[in-house]
Amino acid sequence: MNNRWTLYDPRLAWMLVAPVLLLLIFFLVLPIAVMAAYTFFTFVTAGVETSALTTANWQEFFTDSYYSGFLLKTLRVGAITALLCGVLGYFPAYFIWATSFRHKWLLLLLLIVPFWISFTIRTFSWINILGEQGVINVALLKMGIINAPLPMLYNEGAVILGLLHFLLPYMILNVYVSLEGIDRTLISAARSMGCTSAQAFREVTLPLSLPGLAAGLLLCFVLAAGSYVTPQLLGSGRDALFGNLIYDTIMSELNWPMGATLSIVLFLLLGFFAAIYTRYMGMSQIVKGLGG
Amino acid sequence: MKLTTTKRLERLHDRYVNGDLSRRTFLSLTAAAAASAGLSMPWMSRALAAVEQVRFDGWGGTVQDAIDKFAFQPYTAKTKIKVVQGTFGDEDEIITKIKTAKPGDYQVIHSSGVNYYIKYVNGGLTSEINEANIPNMVNVLQPMIEPFRKLTPKLSAVPYDYGTTGIAYNTKVISPEEAKEKGAALLLDKKYAGKVGGYSDMTTRVWYAALATGQDPNNLKDMDTIWAKVRETRDLAKKFWSSGAELMDLLSKGEIVVTDAWSGRVAALQDQGHPIGYLDPAGSYAWMEDMLILKGSPMAECEELINFMLDPATSIAVAEGQSYPPSLDPNRVKLTDKIAKLPAFDPTGTMKALTFADPTYWATNEDAWTKQWNRISKGA
User: Fold this and answer.
1) Adjacent-strand bridge partners of A49
2) Closest CB to B119 among A46, A154, A237
């Protein structure tokens, strides 16, 4: 028997993949499994639960419309945010790709500069912009355009704005990577065959950049639907998302079994959407959009 | 203060008795200490000086700044024991962290009195203080200690300060006369719709709804009316704040003009020159705070720290800095004029002028009411 290693030896492949696999098992699969087990634990009082198994948490989730209402609202806000990111993010990505500016890296650097500042501080900054004493209201009042401050903070609009601020770079980078993968001679070919610039964009550039747009939409949707800091800081209680319900249940009610149940629900739902999305968009297209 | 070997051994023994040290560790360290009497090795000093720091978690902001400046820094200078600090905006948050940590990771908590004490007791998170190690406890108000002792005859916490959650208002918009006349009803005044704030906390919301409906907050008869009032305030509110920093930000920036507020934080804003008034309406929500030692903490060091904090000079300096009256009995310790002028200060030392939450009554209803409040706060 030949025990020597070959280049494509399955044993070598397993060895190479083993560290990542172990990390995934210990830091992703196992915690989720523990959380799934917790959903069947019995809540006694704030901060106290027993391992006596019960389906009470799941029953409460399925029979109480409070939870389903927030779930639908979360999906709606996630979808609106993702679509706005798509519309607003495509143009900057296209500009960065198409520009003949010599220092294109500078534009890409500007895109990631916001990540150097804490996410919480970036979100808080909107309070100084949208608040009653914020830049916009103060400027409008001083110019005499308005008589009373506009209520721009602590509503759903402010939450979506905060999410856009957070998620737009992800969308732009996804679309940009996809655009970079396009063979520019195809556009030249389209133009040489009589296409106008707009037609070349519609018939060649846009379809070929769709995988990046699709990947960006999925990423933005999942991140927006799973967020809780932005609605906490920029929204009122009514603008809470499902993540805030999870936070309250675990941190305020100290009801871990129910909090675990809600967490698993959100995890499964977002996983379901991702699966459906990739089923119809094609995983290969998404991966391609992500730069694969 | 340099710790003597005898004192270190006493501490080790205390920790062993309290279950904070394994038998093996205790014996090893004791043997090392015994050997050091005649033979000194470098590793022995390390063994005996095992506790070099104490972990403290508090409310941050002006309150913790005062504790750090007037208590922790002098304590470290005196004992060489560092106080490593963390902060939280909401005490449930730190309880969650404690639950997921191993005993000893979190040690001393600036806790919100008896209501929260029950949660630590129920969760099996409390320690047993050796009161003999905190001689300054003799100066602490007995009416503040008694509620804790009712729950656990062997204390795990020592009362440290108290305050009220009264009504804060912007004096540029609301006159002191109007505030005095309307009292707690200011939170329900439609004239200030969209400019009202409030603490995002079940107890505070239910308490003020009780005052608005003329019910005894410690014996509520009609919860439907209470929740209706809570919804009413919610609909008028611009934002329910969730930390002292957020409260101060909302008030100072004029985002809200009236809110229930912590007396000490309002005093801090007044000191900064903001046009903020404060009043305690009849039945205003009074609370006390304590220094709670968690299970698994180095007891002797924590007790020593609390004793230092309760030293009259330290306690008075902290109280003046954080603008909350200390737990010191004014009949035993001469307090300053500045403290006498603080909101909520009780010169009699009986605490009868203040209305505290009945811990047993509130603990019985805590789970259901917190759940209901969380729903109402989200529009339900």
Assistant:
1) A43
2) A46
C-alpha–C-alpha distance, residues B289 and B302, integer Å = 17
Q: Looking at the partner chain, which of B238, B254, B370 has a beta carbon nearest the beta carbon of A252?
A: B370
Give yes or no on whether B5-162+289-355 and B163-286+358-377 have one common fold. Answer: yes
Record: contact B253-A240, CB cut-off 8 A? no
Domains of chain A: 65-289 (1.10.3720.10)
Cβ distance B122 to A253 less than 8 Å, yes or no, reads no
Contacts of residue A64, Cβ cutoff 8 Å, sequence gap at least 6: none
Q: Which residue has the tokens 């019995």?
A: A42
> What six digits make up the tokens of B119?
């949660």
Is-contact B161 B180, C-beta < 8 A?
Answer: no
Closest to B243 measured CA to CA, from B85, B62, B80: B62
Q: Which residues of B touch A232 (CB under 8 A)?
A: 242
The identity of residue A274, as a single letter, is A
Rounded to the nearest angstrom, the minimum Cα separation between A143 and chain B is 20
For residue B256, which residues of chain A lie inside 8 Å, CB to CB? none
CATH domain B163-286+358-377 topology: D-Maltodextrin-Binding Protein; domain 2 (3.40.190)
Residues near A112 by Cβ (< 8 Å), separated by ≥ 6?
Answer: A169
CA dihedral A164, A169, A170, A176 (to 10 degrees): 130
Q: How many whole angstroms separate alpha carbon B29 and alpha carbon B44? A: 8
CB A26 within 8 A of CB A43: no
ipTM above 0.85, yes or no: no
Q: Whose structure tokens read 């694969």? A: A292
- Reading chain B (380 residues) residue by residue, the pLDDT tens digits are 444 555 555 555 555 555 555 555 555 555 555 544 444 444 444 444 457 899 999 999 889 999 999 999 999 999 999 999 999 988 988 999 999 899 999 999 999 989 899 999 999 999 999 999 999 999 999 999 999 999 999 999 999 999 999 999 999 999 999 999 999 999 999 999 999 999 999 999 999 999 999 999 999 999 999 999 999 999 999 889 988 888 988 999 888 999 999 998 898 899 899 999 999 999 999 999 999 999 999 999 999 999 999 999 999 999 999 999 999 999 999 999 999 999 889 999 999 889 999 988 998 999 999 999 999 999 88
Fold of B5-162+289-355: D-Maltodextrin-Binding Protein; domain 2 (3.40.190)
Chain B residues whose CB is inside 8 A of the A245 CB are: 378
Beta bridge partners of B82: B53
**Which residue, B224, B241, B242, is CA-closest to B232?**
B224
Tokens of B87: 């902060």
CA distance linking residue B186 with residue B183, whole number of Å: 6
